[in-house]
Amino acid sequence: MKSRELAVIGAFEFVPDTFPDDRGMFVSPYQEAAFAEAVGHPLFPVAQASHSLSRRGVLRGIHYTLAPPGTAKYVYCSRGRARDFVVDLRTGSPTFGTWEQVELTAHAPRALYLPPGLGHAFLALEEDTVMNYLLSQRYRADNELALAVDDPAVGLPVPGDAVLSERDRAAPSLEAAPLPEYEACLRAAAAFGAP
């Protein structure tokens, strides 16, 4: 498995080896040894595993949590194709406001690790795109926040005709949203062994 740190400090991309044959393909999108070597700690204890199914043109996000408790994510695409965005929303972070996009696809698998405090969004590029998430915290509606994905202050290259949920359409701007604090996010990550 190959890995690289994204432009957003603490976020990583993982590209596992694939094993295709005449039956199809086998892949392991998460591998503990490779993750720990790249990130510097083992994966967080998984409190919840989730997946979403989206039709082409659906844009989900920007979603994030405050710390405490903070939620870390390990995300990959098991069907279809998506343009995935990682955004540093942690005030005081050396990369605050920085974002990076990565194409996630079932045919050329890769995964992303997002530590607590990072924003996450994706645009489904194919019908029936399935995104899978391993989460360090269970879903709690009161801790799940959204930021306007089309906010010019963030600057994501998203299409104006994307299909958004009511919640995402009503999300506040970067200036108006409550944002996580970098040091609090580091403390949240330290609770599961991060340096």
UniProtKB/TrEMBL annotation:
It comes from the Bacteria. CDD domains: cupin_RmlC (cd00438). InterPro entries: RmlC-like (IPR000888), RmlC-like_jellyroll (IPR014710), RmlC_Cupin_sf (IPR011051). Belongs to the dTDP-4-dehydrorhamnose 3,5-epimerase family. PANTHER family: DTDP-6-DEOXY-D-GLUCOSE-3,5 EPIMERASE, THYMIDINE DIPHOSPHO-4-KETO-RHAMNOSE 3,5-EPIMERASE. This is dTDP-4-dehydrorhamnose 3,5-epimerase family protein.
